[in-house]
């Protein structure tokens, strides 16, 4: 085995950055790239702008701004609406932003909390977010038991037949909830699926009062789920944490006991992302 002398290794420049890393003078910046990022950031603050509006408000020539926008559009970072003659932020910007969130926010911060929840309950712990009218599962820590629930990241489930989904529905503003329910068909998956809107609204009121939701074999026969909402800094429910397992382990007499670590895990994640619990 070969060892590197400390003096020699200390003399080498740090990996990933040049010797003049701390020099922020103009010689170490790419002016055209910097100008492009200024346009990109400026556009991100609006719901859509014309080329003329961007150029005027940024005090740049329309020709320069147009070249920048066309270049960014080639990478799907911005997009053009020809009917309205407006420029918007593009889908690639969302994808890049989502990668940052995976690194530094909800999913990353949830991992140790999910592991702790799985250890405390012995059941699979899940993290899900709302996506249109469904719950999108974005992270999971599986139980070591032979019989287990499995919702790999990317799996979607209708909100009305999901523990996390009902936990999120229970925290929605009334007008948004009514609009969502009017535009959705409450599909039946098992004999226990709630397909009546009035009954579902009544259950959501119960969920708000007790602080957790319960999926009683409503999506998959033989499987149960207990979930609680996660809130952001605006006091809005942005995710849900749950434990899932077979009815043989999540029995009627264990629901209350299992709900406590689920609620606590949701509170921990709320705090970790700077949120305010209700």
UniProtKB/TrEMBL annotation:
Start and end residues of each HTH iclR-type domain: 30-91
Entry keyword annotation includes DNA-binding: yes
SMART domains found in the cross-reference section: HTH_ICLR
Taxonomy, superkingdom: Bacteria
Entry keywords, A to Z: DNA-binding, Transcription, Transcription regulation
GO biological process: negative regulation of DNA-templated transcription
Region: Disordered, residue numbers: 1-26
Biased composition regions of type Basic and acidic residues, renumbered to the chain: 17-26
Keyword tRNA processing: no
Protein name from the UniProt record: IclR family transcriptional regulator
Annotated source species: Paracoccus aurantiacus
């Amino acid at each position: 085995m070969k060892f590197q002398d400390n003096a020699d290794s200390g003399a080498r420049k740090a990996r990933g950055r040049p010797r003049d890393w701390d020099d922020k003078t103009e010689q170490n910046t790419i002016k055209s790239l910097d100008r492009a990022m200024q346009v990109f950031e400026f556009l991100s603050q609006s719901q859509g702008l014309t080329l003329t509006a961007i150029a005027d408000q940024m005090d740049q020539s329309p020709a320069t701004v147009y070249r920048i926008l066309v270049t960014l559009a080639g990478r799907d970072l911005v997009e053009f609406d020809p009917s309205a003659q407006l420029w918007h932020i593009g889908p690639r910007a969302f994808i890049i932003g989502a990668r940052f969130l995976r690194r530094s926010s909800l999913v990353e911060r949830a991992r140790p909390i999910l592991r702790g929840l799985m250890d405390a309950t012995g059941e699979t712990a899940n993290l899900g977010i709302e996506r249109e009218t469904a719950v999108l599962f974005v992270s999971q820590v599986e139980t070591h038991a032979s019989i287990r629930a499995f919702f790999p990241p990317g799996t979607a489930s209708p909100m009305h037949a999901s523990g996390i989904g009902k936990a999120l529905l229970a925290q929605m503003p009334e007008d948004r909830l009514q609009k969502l329910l009017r535009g959705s068909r409450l599909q039946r998956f098992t004999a226990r699926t709630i397909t009546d809107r009035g009954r579902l609204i009544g259950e959501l009121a119960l969920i708000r009062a007790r602080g957790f939701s319960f999926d009683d074999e409503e999506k998959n026969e033989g499987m149960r789920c207990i979930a609680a909402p996660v809130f952001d800094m605006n006091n809005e429910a942005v995710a849900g944490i749950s434990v899932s397992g077979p009815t043989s382990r999540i029995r009627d007499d264990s629901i209350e006991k299992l709900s406590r670590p689920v609620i606590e895990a949701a509170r921990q994640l709320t705090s970790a992302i700077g949120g305010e619990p209700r």
